[in-house]
Write a structure and sequence with these properties.
This protein has three domains: 125 residues, Sandwich (Immunoglobulin-like); 185 residues, Sandwich (Immunoglobulin-like), CATH 2.60.40; 193 residues, Cupredoxins -  blue copper proteins (Immunoglobulin-like), CATH 2.60.40. Strands 11-10-13-18-15-16 form a six-stranded mixed sheet, with no helix packed on it. A six-stranded mixed sheet has the order 22-21-26-31-28-29. Strand 2 and strand 3 form a beta hairpin. By secondary structure, it is mainly beta. Helices cover 7% and strands 36% of the residues. The chain contains five helices and 33 strands. It catalyses: 4 hydroquinone + O2 = 4 benzosemiquinone + 2 H2O. It is an enzyme of class 1 (oxidoreductase). It is found in: Secreted, Extracellular space, Apoplast. GO terms for molecular function: copper ion binding; hydroquinone:oxygen oxidoreductase activity.
Length: 583
């Protein structure tokens, strides 16, 4: 029997006011990470990768926020959940035991899982969920990746509370390609609902309408003192004058792209989605659900207390939770009585900031960290993103809102796609997902409100092993334009182009950046615009691709790529583990 590390060891913490009453739900921060890795180094020789073992107990715990107390699903009783610390090259074993009433699966967002989709985590895509009372061990290697990623539940809306950070340190002896920070912190941005999230989701599904939006945003699970009953629910980060800090920022919100800024302090972006960037300075960042951003912050201002703040970005006529969550950057020796200064965040609908910020993101493209952009394309895909309405006699308006790619709204199977693919089980999915929309139209013209019926089905695209793929994602004005963050499992991709309006295949490719485009795993498609990505399909298996707005994923804004096996011995999907859950 393997012995797994329970992640409930004490961590350094600074409390603002008195404790939650749940010690393990207090403000935690990953300070003195250096000493952690010294300890890890004592356990294994630096010349060989070590095995990291963790135990995740899925359990319900009572948590109080905004004057409301409710039971939530957690990992090890903590919200947010524990951070996974590994070195590049490590093997990781995470045993997940489900003590909750819901089925569970966990996705290790951004880890490539080469030939190992069994450890990827999305329910009914690469595995059947872990049923109540059962366990499953996610067993994977961290190869050729370093930086900040994250993990989250990948079933229903349970990732509202089941999420945490993954910190991958470079192989021992390899420095960061930017100034070495004195300390580092994880900053997880999220959303909070006063009511039970699964009830809210079910209510929306029954009505065929969007469910209620969140009641607050959070920073490390805490909304901050601008909300009622929240003085004690505020994350605080102590800094020392003259020192440099690395913030590992993760957007774990379900449905909101977010701005983030620190009053009086400039942020230097050095990494996104565990890929180093050309450093640039900014007063605020924009981060979509699923994305991570590492920034350097220098404690070079007048000693005091400064608010960190986050609020939603939405430049379409769609209601959104527009409340600002705050945390505190506090210089050492400054008393808690000093009132913090608020940062000036961009306006909620500041499209120009969003476009210019994303344009600044460039891969480092150094000799050590090259940008290997595919220059020749074997397969061209063009996917339109749309909202639709299908008949639903029991719904409020007699229709149900759906979302689609190329007019296909994805239906989740009852057998996991990867199992059906590996064992050649017929009737689970079809490989006829269209490469292009069935009917071209003026995608971003006047809002289209007629003929909104959409096809439904479990339809995927088959991709030849090692072929190069270009995918253009085109937003449309079916019901409404909107920004959509798309995540591809099993891969990073290069964002070679983006624009507003309709993609022009005759002119726009000439403007692509094929030298140092940003490489990432989740990209925002701009409101009423398009984004072009490229990747090499060298990871065999079944890989989910979906909008990372949980609302849209549930409406069917998703599909999958079946990447065929290659000819080599190490180019085919590995056999499934013996403890793989069954449906």
């Amino acid at each position: 029997m393997q012995h797994f590390l329970h992640l409930n060891k004490p961590r350094y913490r600074i409390e603002l006011g008195h404790k939650d009453g749940m010690a393990s739900l207090g403000c935690s921060m990953s300070v003195l990470t250096f000493f952690f890795f010294v300890f890890v180094g004592l356990m294994s020789s630096s010349s060989e990768a070590s095995v990291k073992k963790y135990q995740f107990d899925i359990q319900v715990a009572n948590v109080s926020r905004l004057c409301h107390s409710k039971p939530i699903v957690t990992v090890n009783g903590r919200f947010p959940g524990p951070t996974i610390y590994v070195n590049e090259g490590d093997r990781v074993l995470i045993n997940v035991t489900n003590h909750a009433q819901y089925n569970m699966s966990i996705h290790w967002h951004g880890l490539k899982q080469y030939r190992n989709g069994w450890a990827d985590g999305p329910a009914y895509i690469t595995q059947c969920p872990i049923q109540s009372g059962r366990s499953y061990t996610y067993d994977f290697n961290v190869t050729g990746q370093r930086g900040t990623l994250w993990w989250h539940a990948h079933i229903l809306w349970l990732r509202a509370t089941v999420y945490g950070a993954i910190v991958i340190m470079p192989t021992p002896g390899t420095p960061f390609p930017f100034p070495q920070p004195d300390r580092e912190f994880e900053i997880l941005l999220g959303e909070w609902w006063n009511n039970d999230v699964e009830e809210i989701e079910n209510q929306g599904n029954q009505m065929g309408l969007p469910p209620n939006m969140s009641d607050a945003h959070t920073i490390n699970g805490k909304p901050g003192p601008l909300f009622p009953c929240s003085e004690k629910h505020t994350f605080a980060m102590e800094v020392e004058q003259g020192k440099t800090y690395l913030l590992r920022i993760i957007n774990a919100a379900l449905n909101d792209e977010l701005f983030f800024a620190i009053a009086g302090h400039t942020l230097t972006v050095v990494e996104v989605d565990a890929v180093y960037t050309k450093p640039f300075t900014t007063q605020a960042i924009l981060i979509a659900p699923g994305q991570t951003t590492n920034v350097l912050v220098q404690a070079n201002q007048v000693a005091g207390r400064y608010f960190m703040a986050t609020k939603a970005f939405m430049d379409a006529p769609i209601p959104v939770d527009n409340k600002t969550a705050t945390a505190i950057l506090q210089y050492k020796g400054i008393p808690n009585t000093v009132i913090p200064i608020l940062p000036q965040l961009p306006a909620s609908n500041d499209t120009s900031f969003a476009l210019s910020y994303n344009k600044k993101l460039r891969s480092l493209n150094s000799a050590q960290y090259p940008a290997n952009v595919p220059l020749k394309v074997d397969r061209n895909l063009f996917y339109t993103i749309g909202l639709g309405q299908n008949s639903c006699p029991t719904c409020v308006n007699g229709t149900r809102i759906l979302a689609s790619l190329n007019n296909v709204s994805f239906v989740m199977p009852q057998t996991a796609l990867l199992q059906a693919h590996y064992f050649n089980i017929k009737g689970v999915f079809r490989t006829d997902f269209p490469d292009h929309p069935p009917t071209p139209f003026n995608y971003t013209g006047a809002p289209l409100t007629a003929n909104l019926a959409t096809l439904t089905g479990t339809r995927v695209s088959k991709i030849a092993f090692n072929s190069t793929v270009e995918l253009v994602l085109q937003d449309t004005n079916l019901l409404s334009v909107e920004s959509h963050p798309f995540h591809l499992h099993g891969y990073n991709f290069f964002v070679v182009g983006t624009g507003v309006g309709n993609f022009n295949p005759a002119k726009d490719p000439a403007m692509y950046n094929l030298v140092d485009p940003i490489e990432r795993n989740t990209v925002g498609v701009p409101t009423g615009g398009w984004t072009a990505i490229r990747f090499r399909a060298d990871n065999p298996g079944v890989w989910f691709m979906h909008c990372h707005l949980e609302l849209h994923t549930g409406w069917g804004l998703k599909t999958a790529f079946v990447v065929e096996n290659g000819p080599g011995q190490d180019q085919s999907v590995r056999p499934p583990p013996k403890d793989l859950p069954t449906c």
